[in-house]
């Protein structure tokens, strides 16, 4: 470990959390689920969930490092008045969720290609047509109340959608994108990965114009529970992502 990284690690709290979140940013870019310098990932680091790490304004996901992440307080109304203020939608959307949804340790908001396409359909339901899609059976909130960019009341409204639907960790934001919450970076990123893959499968199947093979409610519900009970899959997936970055692009840890 370099002297610079050692110094940063010594002088910053939540270093492992910063590394994990930086890894998630890098892989979101590698998998083309980012959008220019927009979109945001955040991670609560205080016991009450109201202090959280988030990406700095204008930094491309592929250049995020552990030390570049900002530490914000969801209760600090002066945040946007500071010289290094975050992106306004990042502050409003993630601040509202970290204030109002205690279970949302990690929050990912992206405009990924296939999830966004699903959000643009009049019916944004993801039917249980394959094993991946079944992971999300009855676990997705479809928000059809879009009222502009996620500022002020719009952000509060989105957070209330999660608060009113405990146990549901994915929100398809109609006309906007996708918001995913979870108890760890590993779990939340894994959810994003599989949700995007599921949307890709569904939209590809729709494009054939042929009838869909939709599983029964009973099979979909059973498979969703098997996903939930599957031991250690999220952590194993994310551990491998970290290991690959350590080999190929270790600068994310700086």
Proportion of residues in helical segments: 40-55%
Distance between the termini: 10 Å
Give the uncertain stretches in residue-range form.
Answer: 3-8
Question: What's the overall average pLDDT, rounded?
Answer: 94
* Largest beta-sheet details: 7 strands, mixed
The outline comes out as globular
Rg calc: 18 Å
SS-based class = alpha+beta
The SSE order reads: HHEEEHEHHEHEEHHH
Separate helix tally: 9
Major sheet: order of its strands? Answer: 3-2-1-4-7-6-5
Would you kindly provide a brief summary of this structure?
This protein is 44% helix and 13% strand. The protein is built from 9 helices and 7 strands; from the N terminus they run H-H-E-E-E-H-E-H-H-E-H-E-E-H-H-H.
